[in-house]
């Protein structure tokens, strides 16, 4: 009897079968399925139309796959409800469940326990508590001067170049250097960690091709092995960084086992730059397309923090998130039964006209821009929200102050990922540099 490779089983059930189901549903007009393909093709206008159609259909819209919601209040309730969980529990009493359990991976994955993205209390509370202190508003503000210096150094490197790729040469590098320093990653590993994180980013998607799935799993395995080496390096030569502290807590108190330690550290590292890369790139594209808003920021620089939140609202780094129901109940007025999928469309909730006036308009002075749900809500609210806001504010303000003549060139290109939304390439002419003696001064607030 021929043994079926484990990879083939995983790919068939996690990607090929779901994609075929979604394709059939899309042909029948299913909103959830149409959203899948519009996101895959990066059809911005089509996505906005689907958001509006979902909102017009009610707070919780039934689909062939479960429910979908782009209603601000409903999305917030889904994200905060104790009647839902992240991921889907695997029922090993069924034949399919036993097969998937046999074929499961033996390396870290962001959507599988013990990842913070895939666990619930009490484990989630225990993992999160250990890393929360470094991401408080006070701790993040203490990093501002350090982030400013990193941004200034990167902008120095761009000076004099006739053409740059801002996505690759600036947006990607700033966040990875910042989070690497926080987690004790040596400078010579920064580019390597960025490469692995970029390779693993599609792991949040389903419906991948055979080749794409192989590439993602290879990146995840390589990242797993690198984390083992990095943790051992910090164990033998600890520093003052967060990762060294986590290793010490693990060794002294047993607060985390080895896999939990590696998973928590790995997710904080990858999440610490992946979404911020997208945030900054999305912002640059928006400013190019809305020059009046950039002009207003030059005249009123105190609006920069609010502008970052408006970018997060109108073009968030994360399109949507999924939850599954735990029990019979009611969420946002809809009756639910166990193990139903709820797709919470963060980008759609951010354009709910009941909350945001003229929601499709980019307005850096929008009074309630911070009411977006791009950082999720409830117990899974983004741990690094304050850091992402500060990095984007410093990084974007510094870019436009140093290169006031910056303009994008034709050829901007979106990343291939669906859940994570950002730019792979942003070719630009940056023009002459303009230096300021106040480059290390914080933005007035």
Distance between the ends: 69 Å
Total of DSSP H or I helical runs spanning 4+ residues:
18
Broad CATH class = Mainly Alpha
State the helical fraction. 40-55%
Order of helices and strands: HHHEEHEHHHHEHHHHHHHHEEEEHHEEEE
Beta-strand residue percentage = 5-15%
**Largest β sheet strand count, sense and barrel closure:** 5 strands, mixed
Structural features, described:
The chain has a single domain (6-22, 58-429), classed as Cytochrome p450. Residues 437-445 have low confidence and may be disordered. Strands 1-2-8-5-3 form a five-stranded mixed β-sheet. The chain has a three-stranded antiparallel β-sheet with strand order 4-12-9. The chain has a two-stranded antiparallel sheet with strand order 6-7. The chain has 18 helices and twelve strands. The radius of gyration is 22 Å and the shape is globular. It has helices at 6-27, 31-40, 44-56, 72-80, 95-102, 123-132, 137-141, 144-158, 166-171, 173-182, 190-200, 210-236, 242-253, 258-289, 291-299, 304-314, 346-349, 385-402, and strands spanning 61-63, 66-69, 84-85, 164-165, 321-325, 329-331, 334-336, 341-344, 407-408, 413-414, 423-425, 427-429. Helices cover 52% and strands 8% of the residues. It starts with 5 loop residues before the first helix and ends in a 16-residue tail after the last strand. Strand 10 and strand 11 form a beta hairpin. It is of the alpha+beta class and 445 residues long. Helix 2 runs antiparallel to helix 3 (44-56), helix 11 runs antiparallel to helix 12 and helix 14 crosses helix 15 (291-299).
